[in-house]
Design brief:
Blueprint: H1 10-15, E1 22-25, H2 28-48, E2 53-57, H3 64-75, E3 82-86, E4 88-91, H4 106-113, E5 129-130, H5 139-147, E6 152-155, H6 174-178, E7 183-186, H7 189-199, E8 210-213, H8 216-220, E9 224-229, H9 234-243, E10 261-266, H10 267-270
Parallel strand pairs: 1-10, 2-3, 2-6, 3-5, 6-9, 9-10
Antiparallel strand pairs: 4-8, 7-8
């Protein structure tokens, strides 16, 4: 095998000095519950001090949201001083947001699964539910600055190492890649294929070709970064993240020296068989 780390056992993955903390949890539910717990605890801690909470949030992974919603409603956690800045959204061929009724719309998903499920007296105002806008790309970078920065960026890792839709681009130096802010871009074939399989029943020909995404810059400057991996192909992605070189050809590798980052994975991903 050209890259030895792809053959690392669970023990080797954890003990050969990975470039970021790797936390192994029993199963998908354990990973998602842990993410939901951290979301809720961060908000409660800030609420107690009268401070705002600012998250960058993904639609993938998404399993944390039902647990988060349940916790918010049960514990009566106010989100009135919370901002959810979603990472990205699919665009149509005119580079406009896909409609919320589109089965892949992240805006539609967040409304159905998160905002509409939280009790009205607890949920944040609509103007604090943010999505990158292809017609106002400066809005999120400026908003983050006005809010005093992002407390936690939650996310996953794509098959080519992308975080949000920050697709691999080996033509850029690492420094150039890390300077990229919110923008519109074309989705790579690899990502369209993986997302078609995972999210769209394999309907590759109907997968959107474009997206709008927050930049790696916004992610890298969050005070904390929390990543979760749980799919079968994440076995390779996790190993490259933990042991591969830092390169714009695998964007998450440019985040592994962040001061407060961890990667939560399942026992399935940590193993190489089964």
């Amino acid at each position: 095998m050209k890259h030895a780390y792809y053959g690392y056992t669970k023990e080797e993955l954890l003990n050969n000095n990975p470039k970021l903390p790797v936390l192994v949890m029993e199963d998908n539910e354990a990973v998602f519950r842990s993410m939901a717990e951290e979301m809720a605890e961060e908000i409660k801690a800030h609420n107690e001090k009268g401070e705002k909470t600012v998250f960058i949030c993904p639609v993938g992974p998404v399993g944390q949201y039902p647990f988060f919603v349940e916790k918010v409603n049960k514990e009566r956690i106010s989100l009135k001083n919370v901002w959810f800045i979603n990472m990205d959204e699919y665009l149509d061929d005119e580079k406009k947001w896909v409609p919320e009724t589109h089965p892949l719309s992240f805006r539609g998903f967040m409304n159905r699964v998160v905002y509409e499920k939280i009790d009205e007296e607890l949920v944040m105002p609509k103007e604090q539910r943010i999505f990158p806008d292809p017609e106002n790309l400066d809005y999120i970078p400026n908003l983050i600055e006005e809010l005093g920065g992002v407390d936690i960026c939650f996310g996953g890792i794509g098959i080519n190492g992308h975080v949000a839709f920050n697709e691999a681009d080996p033509s850029l130096s690492n420094e150039e890649f890390l300077a990229q802010k919110t923008r519109v871009l074309e989705i790579t074939k690899e990502t369209r294929t993986a997302n078609a399989i995972g999210d769209f029943n394999g309907a590759l020909e109907d997968m959107p070709h474009y997206c709008v995404t927050i930049g790696i810059y916004e992610i890298a400057h969050a005070r904390k970064i929390r990543l979760g991996c749980f799919r079968n192909w994440h076995r390779a992605v996790v190993r490259r993240t933990a042991y591969g070189e830092a390169t714009s050809d695998f964007p998450v590798s440019l985040l592994t020296d962040h001061a407060d980052i961890n990667l939560k994975i399942t026992e399935f991903v940590a193993a190489l068989e089964g």
